[in-house]
Structure formats: C-alpha cells, structure tokens
C-alpha cells in the first residue's frame, strides 16, 4: 500500500496493526492499496448451473440464463455499461454521467415471512431491485476479530437498489420514494442495538442522524471495530 506520505509499504514495513486494519477497514481512510494478491478460482457457466440445480432447483437456471465473461469485464457490466464495451471505459469511472442515477441501501435480519411483502414491492411501478450477496462457507471459519470484517455468521448481505435514467425532481422522487418505502417496511425487522453498516455502505442522506450512533454505539464492541459492521441477514 501507499500511505498518506507517499511511502510504499509491504506487510513488514506497515506493521501488523495496520495490516490488520486494511483488510476490511475501508481503504480510503488512510492509504491506497495498489496490490492485494489472491488465489482466484476460474468458474464456468456450466459449473454455476450445476451448483444452482443442486442448491436452488426450483429456479430452473440454465446455461442460457448466464453471461460468461472475465472478471474485469463484469466490473463494466455491474456499472450498467452492459457487455461488449472497451475496458478503457474504466479509466473514466470518476467523471460525471448524468444519464445514470442510483440509490442503494443495505440492512439486516429479515424473517422469512417478510419476503411476501418484499416481493409485492418489486412489482410496483418504479421498482428497483434487491441484491443478496451470499456469505457463509469459508467465511464462517474465520474468527471475527482476526480482520476488521466481523460478519462471519451472516447468510447474506442484502442491498436495496433504485436506479433511473430520467433527470428532474419528479423522476428522482419516484424512485427514491420506492426505495425509502420498502426500506421503511423492513426497518422493524433489522438489528437495532447496535445498528450500523460497512464503511462502503454509508447512508449519505441520513448521515447527520446516524453518525453519533456509528461513532459511539458500535466502536469496540465484539472485540472489533464494529463501526464497520454492515447490515446483514444473520445466521440463526
């Protein structure tokens, strides 16, 4: 990583405390990580279809439902650029794109009976989408205090998304209203004490009300920096 003074640091140079912090502590806080080595697993659509058939056979997923691509191409895809776009577009990710608007939220602990209400909201005019990032597996084997990411017993990280292409207050209010309405319906079912989120899932439009809670209510609990805690669906 490169620290604020411009020094290039590896694990030995930065020390164990800083090495612990950068693995889930929000890299934009105090440094810029330029290299993180991982062992990647090459997957195919056929492997995914087989796994889905074993775990969720009721969905009937086939190979034609999948788009196979390199990981770097998926970055463009999930940024709403679609497929077939040049990778050089990633170099322009920081500039303004007024034709794309997005609002996202995350939260936790939703009982199974609440899903019926959730599905009805997805059928409304102006509906966005929900993303459930699956957790569990190898994550559960890691002791929460080992890294600044303590969410080891979660089933999913759930995100609420609303997006639109028309400019103007009316279009924004329509889609913002949808996500706020659905989020409000879910609020009684989330963990309240403490409540928080990961550093990358901040609620900017409510930060003035939430900041004292994040700064005082969660720091240091669970033997970890739970100020980084993401709203999650937890494992029973």
SSE blueprint:
Layout: E1 2-3, H1 11-14, H2 16-22, E2 31-32, H3 45-55, H4 71-81, E3 101-107, H5 115-122, E4 129-134, E5 154-164, H6 169-186, H7 207-217, E6 233-234
Antiparallel strand pairs: 1-2, 3-5, 4-5, 5-6
The assembly state of the depicted protein chains is single chain
Tally of domains? 3
Shape field? globular
The CATH architecture designation of the largest domain is 3-Layer(aba) Sandwich
What's the CATH topology label of the largest domain?
Vanillyl-alcohol Oxidase, Chain A, domain 3
* C-alpha Rg (nearest Å): 20 Å
What ranges have pLDDT less than 50 throughout 5 or more consecutive residues? Answer: 204-236
Which sheet architecture does the biggest sheet show? Answer: 4 strands, antiparallel
Mean pLDDT: 70
Q: Tell me the number of strands.
A: 6
What is the CATH class designation of the largest domain?
Alpha Beta
Number of helices: 7
Percentage of residues assigned to helices: 25-40%
Task: Describe, in short, the structure shown.
It contains seven helices and six strands, in the order E-H-H-E-H-H-E-H-E-E-H-H-E. By secondary structure, it is an alpha+beta fold.
